[in-house]
Amino acid sequence: MTTASILNNVIGPVMPGSSSSHTAGPYHIAKMCRSMIGELPCEISFTFEPASSIAEVYHEQGSDLALIMGTLDLPLTDPRFKKAFDLFPSYGVDIQFIIKSFPEACHPNSIKIEAKLKDGSLFTAVADSTGGGALLFRRLNGWEVEMTGDAYWLSVEVPAERSAEVMELLKKSGKVTLSEKEGRAMLLMSTPAPVDAEVIEKLKSEKELFGCFCAIPVFFPVRGERIFTSGEEMVRYAEDKGLTLGEAALEFESALLCMPKETLDAEMDRRLQVMIDSVALGLSDESPQMFLLDPAAKKIMQAEKEGRLALGGIHTRAAARAMAAMQVNSGQGIVCAAPTGGSAGVIPGVMVTMLEDMKKTREEVVRSMWAAGAIGWVLATRGTFAAEVCGCQVEIGAAGAMGAGAVVEAAGGSARQAADAGAIMFQNAMGLVCDLVQAIVEIPCHTRNGSFASQAFICADMILGGYYNAVHIDDTVDAVYSSGKMLPLELRCTSLGGMAVTPSALSMQRKR
Asked: How far is CA 329 from CA 287, 343, 401, in A?
């Protein structure tokens, strides 16, 4: 079972649009590779499996830009992100993107990395962008590994006869696994704290050393333990302690990351501000240029204000705000993925509506974001946020479920009611395909974000009004995950089916 963190894996990362799987995830992979290499390589290539999701959309969704920024060790939110191709030649590194089969590919977002260092040595790795910006390294210089982005890692390759000696040195600092083949041994250590510099120096001074690489985390290191492991345990924990879902989620995160609640609240507040800013920009005259669509959020909001709509009201305003944030996402502006870039409008639409229409305080909205994170955490633990694996139900569907839980929290509902609101929202999103037009996160993503922001309030009201949810959050998420894996490849973020292959979709002219 995955050890998921709310800040690491659910509410975030803060990133330029448009896809956390195809933008933030590749960036994190490249950044960890750069930390292991320890220098800017002379040459580096990134290979994608033909017909895989990332091969189909890597250019349109900025994977190439993200991989360049990570290789150059520049921040993901650097304003030069869009001009990454103009940057790297001046750094003296040759960066290539290749579509070619490789046997280690086993995920729709598998990436093979091959680098030539200044001393002539080679570095190779295979990693998967697993959804929501998360990653998993599966091979390192020919060795099988399991490396995530929430720990410090040290890999050491030595003659097999020296493995016991090196093991004795390393196990004092962290958890160590050992692999052996052809007279060689590879020891892989993970630790929540930086590796002792003296240990690294001692290892690198050894004559019989085939390789030594250190990787720094791209997320908050996991230093503690989970205080619950499922949605039902989460609800019971809150009930036993007399907590709301948001309060229970904050306690969970504090125990898992060993960080003070005040620090965690401040970080969540920072991410809330990114959401507020993305909505404000999307509703302004400065909304960035998109690929296929013209900005519509401001028009909808104005029409609602003037009474020119069939109904209008809080649901429409939430939808327009969600679409505003997605306009920024599509224009590769800065957003907070929650839980993904493709769903980066739902939670901002809900949260800004809480602030502006429900008149909730900033503190109340931050607590509601923790409740949203708790709902998403169930899916992060039991499934995936990758539409490449399970379709749109685990991206925009998940965001809608998170939003429903957040609304219940803000309305004073119980932890169980918040979990039930998330569950019924998931149930209404089950089977939702990912058929993005021209491999761009705009159609149908924008209207789905708007619709699900609106539905979050409806599902919350149904539960608060007395609807009994018979299928609890864990069973619901398990059903979402299993049904998602049944979807054909064409309907899982490859733009090979659904609306993506209709004549009108294929004939749309791009605006940039």
From this structure: 10, 9, 20
